[in-house]
Amino acid sequence: MLGSFRRRGCTCKKKRCTCGSKWTYRYHIIDPVTGKRKQKETRGFETKAEAEAEAKRILAEIEKGIYVDEKNITFAEFVPEFLKLYETSGKVKPGSVRVRKRCCNNLQNHFQNIKMKDITKKMYQDMLIELGEKYSKETITSIHATGRMLFQKAHDLGIIKLNPTVGAEIPRKQQTVEEIESVEQLPEFMEKDELAKFLNITSDHGLDFQDYPIFVTLAYTGIRVGELCALKWSDLDREEKTLSITKTIDNEKNNTREYKLVPPKTKSSIRVVEISDTVLQALNEQRKKQNLMKMEHRDTYHDADFIFTKNNARYGYYGYPFMQKDIGSRMKRLLKIAGLNTTLSPHSLRHTHTSLLAAARVSLETIQDRLGHKNDDMTRSVYLHVTKELKREASQKFEELMGGLK
Question: 108: domain range?
């Protein structure tokens, strides 16, 4: 057998050792990174037989090519390496990186100073159970997804032999009747008359010249607010009456000058959206007034072709794209003036668009394609809610039609 056995720290030199020393097994491996021969040692066995059993296991793994030289790196030491690899993969958006960082902070609360190789499946499952008592299912799902990626990467790099997240399950809490009844199943959205009132108020009381084209575009297209902020004039095809959705805005620091344009949320989010004459007319008026603004502030205007831009004399921001929170603040102001629900958000207009299309009997598949999200449960729930009412209406009309028969 490869390697050698000895008593580590033996001082008594007796055939039957009485000094309490342990057996060790010393062996050699080829480092996969350097290609050099490397000496390893396992220790702490009470008997030589125990050391021999471990030696057989190690030798078998080496011969099969499945041996992993686990590292002594702690969880806290590996997290920065994981995040660096994740961020530089070229496959994720800045927003996703921020989510992973937050989730890693949650994981660190449990595993920070523990060696990666010492984290067991039970420890990881216990962590999920503990989180289940504090957070929502959505939050735990996100943390678990991050944990799976992190430990899988550690396994791929040869830092750990086994991935403790394999087989782990997110705990499910049994809801009480009271909890079920108190949960609002549908997202908030406006009815047709409420939307009409909101847009009328926007036309009359909107800030500068932009609020009306901003909110009529959101309401009439169903695009996401981040997609709206990233729109450029080059995305508008006046002849075909379409908007090309190819990007979204990202601004981690909420600094006007430090915006980033990143790919949309999903592949299906990259799409071409047909617009109505109402939207096209609003955008044409927007272009005329924006050109006047450019001329007035030609020396300071940030001309990056954005359709909707900040025009702030106080801070000298001309031509920079809006951030999502800017649109939310403008909408809240207008909702208050209109006497409508001020908890509605720009995203509520996306749900409003869904409900009105469903009421017009547009198919769910067509709506999902227009919104650029094939697997959106919220969109589906709004659609089913509206169409259920339509089906009930159809049943009642048939009853009235047949009511005269005996």
Answer: 75-172
